[in-house]
Amino acid sequence: MSWGKCKMKTKNKKLILPITPSLDTLDLLVRAKLLLENALAKASNPSGVDPLIAMLGFDNVIEFLLRIISDHIDYETLTGKNFSETELSQMAGDINKLLKENDLGNLPQFNNIKLLRKVRNLIQHGGLDPGNDLGRFTKITKTFFDEIVWKFFGMTSDNLAISSLINDDVVAGFLKNAEKLIEDEKFLESIVNCRDAFDNALFYRNKYNRHRIDSVPAVVELAKSSWLLKRYFESTEESINLLKYGVDSVKYDHFQEILLHIPYKLKADKSGNHVLQRKWNLNDAQFCYSFVSNQILKWENETVPPLYEDSEDDFFYAKEYLDGVWLKNVMNESTMVYFDGDVSLHTLLFVTNNEMKNVFDSFQEGNTYEYVTEFLGEDRQTVERKTSSMIKVIHKSLKIITHNPVRWATALHLKQLPFTWKREDLINDHLQLTSLSINEATNDELSKVLGLRSHICEQIISLREEGTKIQSLDQITQINDINNFEIKQIRNATRL
Fold first, then answer.
1. Per-residue confidence (pLDDT) for residue 337, from 0 to 100
2. By C-alpha distance, which of 211, 196, 151, 238 is closest to 404?
3. Beta carbons within 10 angstroms of residue 7's beta carbon
4. Which position among 4, 290, 295, 423 has the lowest Cβ density within 10 Å, counted as fewest Cβ atoms?
């Protein structure tokens, strides 16, 4: 039995428009819009060679758009052709033909964009002055852009912005402002909004970053010994975080270099600035906008939601006071406490606004304050337990993390003074003192509550029976065979 050859005819896939753009395509469209706005700016107030630059810009925008369309509709798969080296008129003709074959009408401004390419060639190679034709080609290019965006992507050019894809309203607002300010040629103001968008996006991303949180006590410890070590550690910690978040380090460094030149009046911490040796320009603003918007889009697409969101009620389970100030009123995000190996040392970390920064400033290193924690019942009002102690501020730090809204990251490194810890419990609707007094506790209480060995308990009782109350930690440390755990338990869980 012989087999004959048969030739099968394949049918091209039908093109249906509009097609929603991908994030990468949207980014390209935004870039095309920025190129158009730059060309329109040159054409709006022409002087010198501006008309020539505007005409070349119009032509570049049209060719850029046609190549975006080619990738967007997967032209190569639909036709078997590609535009890698195709001339603009040929590209326009091929796309126009494809539209007709699929009953989608004509390519907008088809004949006019071919004419624009001819004029552009005369300008570039023949030195032609576009003269009075500049206004005509301005209208042609703007109309082409608007109609193309609607026909192929189902969008209006006014809404063609990355900010429209950002889920976070605050961050999206800053990016939207930056886009409008670029259009208005207010480049410095646009850069400031890019800074605020990036800072806020990074702040929210850091909310669940254990690496950053765990580094705080280490920074405090280094600050006590060497400012240079602290600065290097903070720089290294920032680099690790950015690497973890997939930030391009070269672009980030350039972004930060630009931000260093923002005038101090536009900074919440009023820190100094480098003086820019020229005027702010479009390239500065476009770089910042492109870097920030792309990074934020990437973060939003990669975000994994937490297992659960913090409830507002969670912050009221315990109220903490330092020198009579409720820390809930000093922060607008969260308060965290870190205990070192020595329980007498701990670090308070909280985020505070600009108004309450003065409260933080009032806590002075070397001074002693009362530190109180109130544990609330299920009604979030009744104080069921209260602990207090006297603490000494060993070190404090303050760092701006967002300029708008103003947020300061604050840290207090505290040391609890010996024999000052007290506990009160709600008994018969009244708080009653229930913590042990080192000078009154029984042998059984010292053993069961503090976990002291029996012969240590006996020596403490003997000290008291000699007629002298225990007044200092030195008396405890001189007890024969007492270990570090027992010393910490006595100093941090009893009162005089």
1. 56
2. 196
3. 4
4. 4
8 Å CB contact between 456 and 486: yes
C-beta separation of 68 from 155 below 8 A: no
- Can you tell me the distance from the alpha carbon of 354 to that of 340, in angstroms, rounded to the nearest whole number? 29
Query: What DSSP element (H or E) covers 112?
Result: helix 110-126
What is the chain's alpha carbon radius of gyration, rounded to the nearest angstrom?
A: 34
Helix (H) or strand (E) holding 348: strand 345-352
- Pure H helices in 407-493: 443-448, 454-465, 473-477, 484-493
Instruction: Confirm if 349 and 336 have CB atoms less than 8 A apart.
Output: yes
Q: Beta strands 436-437 and 430-433: pairing type? A: unpaired
Encoded tokens for 56: 């070349």
Helix 169-183, helix 187-206: angle, nearest 10: 160
**Rounded CA gap, 417 and 344, in Å?**
7
Torsions phi, psi for 85 (to 5 deg) = -130, 20
C-alpha span between 29 and 160 (Å, rounded): 7
Q: What is the pTM of this model?
A: 0.66
Tell me how far apart the alpha carbons of residues 111 and 89 are, in angstroms, rounded to a whole number. Answer: 9
Which tokens go with 477? 């440390």
Residue 68 parent element (H or E): helix 50-72
Series of mean pLDDT values for 10-residue runs along the chain (496 residues): 39 79 84 83 76 87 91 82 72 88 91 86 74 85 93 85 84 94 93 96 80 71 77 83 88 93 89 87 89 88 71 64 76 51 62 74 90 86 88 84 86 85 86 86 88 91 80 88 89 84
Cα atoms in the 13 Å half-sphere on the side-chain side of 365: 11
Q: What are residue 392's phi and psi, to 5 degrees? A: -115, 130
The DSSP secondary structure of 312-334, one letter per residue, reads GGGGGSEEEEETTEEGGGT-SS-
* Under 8 Å between Cβ of 393 and 413: yes
Helix 23-44 and helix 133-153, axial crossing angle in degrees, nearest 10: 160
Residue 151 makes CB contacts below 8 A (sequence gap 6+) with: 17, 18, 104, 105, 108
Which helix (H) or strand (E) segment holds residue 194: the answer is helix 187-206
| Contact criterion met (CB below 8 Å) for 287 and 300 | no
Please say whether the beta carbons of 400 and 351 come within 8 A. Answer: no
CB neighbours of residue 210 within 10 Å: 7
Instruction: Output the pLDDT for position 316.
Output: 53
Task: Give the distance, in angstroms, between the CA of residue 275 and the centroid of all CA atoms in the same chain.
Answer: 26
**Residue 484 φ then ψ, to 5°:** -65, -40
Nearest residue to 180 via CA among 150, 153, 160: 160
d(CA 334, CA 352): 9
